[in-house]
Amino acid sequence: MEEQDLEVIHEFLVESYENLAKLDQELVALESRPNDKSLLAGIFRTFHTIKGTCGFLGFATLEKVTHQAENLLSQLRDGQRELTSSLVTLILETVDSVRRILSAIEAGGAEGGETFEPLIEKLRAAAQKGNEPLPPAAPAAAQTCPENVSDEDGPKSGSISDSNVRVGVEVLDKLMDLVGELVLARNQILQYNSEREEPVLNATSQRLNLITSELQSGVMKTRMQPIGVVWNKLPRVVRDTAVALGKQIRVEMDGAETELDRTIIEAIKDPLVHLVRNACDHGIERPEVRVRVGKAVQGTLSLRAYHEGGQVNIEIADDGAGIDAARLRQKAVDKGLLRPEESGRLSEKEALHLIFRPGFSTVEAVTNISGRGVGMDVVKSHIEKVGGAVDVVSQPGKGCAIRLKIPLTLAIIPGLVVGSGGERFVIPQVSLLELIRLEGDRRLENVNGTPVCRRRGSLLPVASLSDVLGLAGTAPAEAVNMVVLQAEDQQFGLLVDAIGDSQEIVVKPLGKQLKGLSVYAGATIMGDGRVALILDVRGIGQCSGVLADSRQQARGSREPQSRVESERRRLLLFRAGSFERLALPLSVVSRLEEFPRSSIEKAGGRHVVQYRGEILRLVPLGAVLEGTRPDIEIADPAPVVVVKDGARSVGLLVDEILDVAEEAVIARQKTTRKGLLGSAVVGTQVADFLDLNFVIRAAVEDWFDDVGKTPTPARILLAEGSGFSRGLIRGGLDMAGYTVLEASNFEEALRRLEEQPVDIALVAADLPPHGASALLDAVGARTEWHAIRVLTLAAGSETGLPDGLAKFDGDGVLKSVASLAAAIACDFQTPQHTTTGGRP
Amino acid sequence: MTTEAGQFATFVVSDLSFAVDVLRVQEVLQPQPMTRVPLACGVIEGLINLRGQIVTAIDMRRRLGLPPRGSGRPSMNMVIRYEDAAVSLLVDEIGDVLQLNPEALDEPPVNLDSAVRNIIRGIYKLPDRLLLVLDIERAVDLAQAMAA
What we know:
With 840 residues, chain A is α+β, with helices and mostly antiparallel strands. Chain A is 40% helix and 26% strand.
């Protein structure tokens, strides 16, 4: 057998023995607590793990046994059947059999001749029978067991467990601290030695120096491992999975030398195998499908690992079909994990995160490889146990990437020492792109008070470390030092007072009292024995506002801007008026439409279009942004971005829809220009971010005013002689959700008022036959109509009522009505008659 | 509570005498080089290197809402074991270890300044002075310090 395989089997045995020992206890505990779901899930996972691994190692019998046991356990876990003691016996028997097979493997590298058919049959029968009582389990397997193997049954797996000593991490931590002390003591002795010339001391201290260094690196080594240790096994996993599924998959690896703390390696080992298997099984398509959609026959699975901002990032990406968020939503509803209305509310990202829910799997058939809904929730729980996070990014049709972010609790990283405000800080080297000294011609520039720096044709946002940390700033000097940093996909410059050495540092966690500070990733002890803080580059960027904050939303920030920034992953780019590149987060866009110019009508001074059985209001975006009148040239067909807010939609009339950009924001500048949130480099060009709130507010003033204010829509009497004006005003009122009654003259208005209660009367000053005053008097004469608020509508100059509402000022009318309606809703005591100004 | 032994380490902050359960005290240190932590809560004086372990130092004067120690008056570190780790309390002077009868502990008077009252468990009436027994958990709970 190959060296590599032996190593894999060895690890498999160690791990399986440990799991089995745990299983015995868990199963006994389960008997007394048969409804303990977490216990059942744990037992199920153990079998799942063994089954999964032995599948790849080619141990067919073991796989068969565990597969059947897993079937049975999954029924128990899902509550499809009760756990009886005969079932526990059966499972324990299975555990014993598994242990025997493992002993055989350890002894001879193969499973031995035993088939375990009776046991497999019993497990199968049990799984099929559902809740029927089982015949008492006979120790059949034990009898069929070959002698040479059963001998080893008692002192199980002696050789392997003896050759490995598992040392608690706290012991290693303690050793590490002691070595740290030793290093400091050594430094002092070396210092002392250099001051005097004593040959004996000199020789001894040299020796001490050497031994200390070796001890230090030795102790370090006990904790650090390159991630390649785990990765090396993955190509085999991929190959076997691919063969089993009839797929062709190539593995790419980048960053295998990235060193990880031992505890982290342990924690990510299983999740990685799960993720890789999942990517092969669900992600990458079968060759014929790939050919059909125009991809290379061979799928690619890429593994990437790197340190970033005090964290280790591991990315498992495939170029497969990606994840269909709509299907996830549907599946969640079908499985009863979500109610249909809940699933509709999920954002794209939240929907993708459904895959991490326990019991969630979108694959119909339960295969040997995956599809039981066990993988992803285990991955998540393992990663979160070490304080990490899992994220999933998917581009339907193009592939899917799972990103693990794992904190660097104890790792040695290269860092750059910088000084600011008289303090020393360490910047992790991985976040560092370059050092720039700004002097002479090359200096900082200001955009609206925000410092920026030109760097090879692009604008780099700049922050000052002293400002971010609130340290005493130094006087502006002739030359400034800037470090260019990268966090996630964005870059920024950080001004520091001094740039020091680059050195290897040991990251130490901060105390509980300082955990809340996002600007620090930890602390380290410098050569002189003093503590220096390690900067969290992402935290610094976010704190100073030079980085879009993707976590802000999670923290519940109500800053309006963050709503746009946080969803910067996918942006819709379009052109309107003089704005060549405008951007909106795709998440606020409900549809992109093109309407023939002939279908766009003008009503109430606005452009509207009939859309899905409703009237869709169109906002001429270019005109709104430029502050000009909305008499714009409309393209034919007119491209429209439909955005949705609550139950209502509005269409943005744009000139051209350009593109959808994926997570490409590099740098951003704030702006004071109305209608724009700021600008940013998207892809390679600058784009302006649209302030949707402003645009809608400017164009549709009543959108926000009346939303949620009136519990029952106000009833409005619209008394107006001209049918044309009536229709015009009514359109706006209808859209705002009011119940509108129409009257064309005084008589009709009275009739309407008598027929049903009315909250607001809109009366045209020129209401036939005698004008508004006749109706006002009539309303004033009846006590039961005193609650009615009256608004008069004047048609500009024709009535000589300068302060009445202008009839054609649709927005003004709507606004006044909305405020009245709100007052009614609050039972606010206002005079019975309002003219919003004077009365006729 | 582990006051059965009845042994208390004492320290002085301004004109107040404090006592902590001696079993919670890890060690007492001379003034240490301190690394400031910008943006941290004001009562955190900084970080010290305690033989490779990074320990947060809390200034008891600020914690108690007292005026700052005059310059030239170094602060002593009383390193307290707290949740698997350690914190250092910066105090003016370190006193003796005293044997005290736990039953003689009095409730803190209600009119005591809340910054002090919130972080003590009670008061011992010594012949020459009053000794305030520090509630370590509350004293190092900085969420509380921020609110105070």
